[in-house]
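can u pls check wat happens w/ protoporphyrin IX containing FE
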Amino acid sequence: MPGQLAPLGPDLNLVKDWTLAGFTAAMRTGIDPNGHQISEQMPWRSVGKMDDDELEAIYQYLTHMPNS
Ligand code: HEM
């Protein structure tokens, strides 16, 4: 859309290669399943405060998106 900011983060289809436990741990610790320290630009500290059911719902959404 004209005037809209470009996406700030990566293509979240990358989560399809992660397990649920790996996704949850990444959002809670800031370290992804590949050992990458996620930058503070990504609000993982607040996203990681969601409970297990909420994070699983996001994981299910991300892992069932059409490929971009
Ligand atoms: C529920 C909301 C969100 C979820 C589930 C989410 C999920 C993710 C995931 C899975 C990554 C990949 C990290 C990696 O490469 O290992 C990521 C990266 C990133 N996200 Fe988010 N994100 C959310 C909200 C946001 C918001 C609101 C922003 C910015 C305002 C943001 C900015 C970023 C940035 C800049 C990165 C790249 C960080 C890096 O590579 O170090 N995210 N996000």
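The helical segments are 20-29, 44-47, 52-63.
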